[in-house]
Amino acid sequence: MESEWITSSVPFTLESVQVLASNKSLETIPSRYIRPELVQEVDHDKVFVNEIPVIDLSKLIEGEDRFSQEEMEKFHFACQEWGFFQLVNHGVAEDVMEKMIEDVSSFFDLPFEVKKEYSLDSEGYGQALVFSEEQKLDWGDMLFLRTQPVASRNYQVWAAQQCIPTFRETVSKYSSEMEKIKTILLGMMTKNLGVDEGNFMNMFRDGSKQSMRINYYPPCPEASKVLGISPHSDATGLTILLQLNQVDGLQIRRNEAWLPVKLHPGALLINIGDIIEILSNGRYKSIEHRVIVSNEKERMSVATFHGTHESVEVGPLTEIITNGETAKYKSVKNYDEFEKIFLSRKLDGKSVLELFRLKN
Ligand SMILES: O=C(O)CCC(=O)C(=O)O
Ligand SMILES: [Fe+2]
């Protein structure tokens, strides 16, 4: 089988799944991608109807005519009971979304020889978090970018102007839009959680960490046997996900089953990450999710992760635990330490969070 290889941050060489999948005569895929556990599962699509909450952001903006207390309550319920919701009327200009779709698609259309130039030790193009020869591989490639604070950007891994003329500008604009949404949502969460807004927002102030995982899942001839992304929760504060084409594939774990998410066109998908679970002492929970792939169509998505400022201690908020509650999680001295722990492990359910859980 013909394939090309790239070197990742860890001492293993990896295949580009896009290159692998482009071989039209490929019928049997390498065993490292095959997930035996999927064989026992019932047809996921038939397990549940999709009832994931839909939140209207235009009704959460205080002081605006459309602000609605009922929407605030719906939002609280979505954070508490689901950990995942769709966001509509989010106010991101259509041209910003469209340019993002266009430039990200152009990136994955570049020849492998060009894309691999955007691969560095801990960011850029390729596959990440592969630590052993035995580990199962995900059916997807990605481009991982550190996007905020601006000083943390490494433009070496952002497609250059001669490749995709507007790529850097497009991602920059999109990144700023995501910051705005994050700020509104986190502000509203403090109200629902009854915690001090100033203190909480200070953790996620200007200069806090934002990164993007831009995912490309090629079609797979044995789609039902692979996963585009292994089950995991996001080790971040808040994730905002944009599905770039109308191909569904995301599933969230709910009531011990995998619930498929059918995204409304133009909606963004929001999910609570491990850090918010820790800060809120478990009132809001991060939810495991995974991606299944199609045997016909490629799928693309951009997950924008929002962490805290690097100096912030990550632990249950004192205001919550001084109210007579016991801390359910250990604290870690700052965000960078938290990230180091997360980056040293494969994606594996909520295993990162489990390291922090206190057994009371
Ligand atoms: O592609 C998706 O829908 C989900 C991606 C995801 O979970 C991630 O990048 O963390
Ligand atoms: Fe994720």
UniProtKB/TrEMBL annotation:
<dbReference type="InterPro" id="IPR050295">
    <property type="entry name" value="Plant_2OG-oxidoreductases"/>
</dbReference>
<dbReference type="GO" id="GO:0097295">
    <property type="term" value="P:morphine biosynthetic process"/>
</dbReference>
<protein>
    <recommendedName>
        <fullName>Fe2OG dioxygenase domain-containing protein</fullName>
    </recommendedName>
</protein>
<dbReference type="Pfam" id="PF14226">
    <property type="entry name" value="DIOX_N"/>
</dbReference>
<dbReference type="InterPro" id="IPR027443">
    <property type="entry name" value="IPNS-like_sf"/>
</dbReference>
<comment type="similarity">
    <text>Belongs to the iron/ascorbate-dependent oxidoreductase family.</text>
</comment>
<keyword id="KW-0408">Iron</keyword>
<dbReference type="Pfam" id="PF03171">
    <property type="entry name" value="2OG-FeII_Oxy"/>
</dbReference>
<dbReference type="GO" id="GO:0016706">
    <property type="term" value="F:2-oxoglutarate-dependent dioxygenase activity"/>
</dbReference>
<dbReference type="InterPro" id="IPR044861">
    <property type="entry name" value="IPNS-like_FE2OG_OXY"/>
</dbReference>
<keyword id="KW-0479">Metal-binding</keyword>
<feature type="domain" description="Fe2OG dioxygenase">
    <location>
        <begin position="208"/>
        <end position="308"/>
    </location>
</feature>
<dbReference type="InterPro" id="IPR026992">
    <property type="entry name" value="DIOX_N"/>
</dbReference>
<keyword id="KW-0560">Oxidoreductase</keyword>
<dbReference type="InterPro" id="IPR005123">
    <property type="entry name" value="Oxoglu/Fe-dep_dioxygenase_dom"/>
</dbReference>
<dbReference type="GO" id="GO:0046872">
    <property type="term" value="F:metal ion binding"/>
</dbReference>
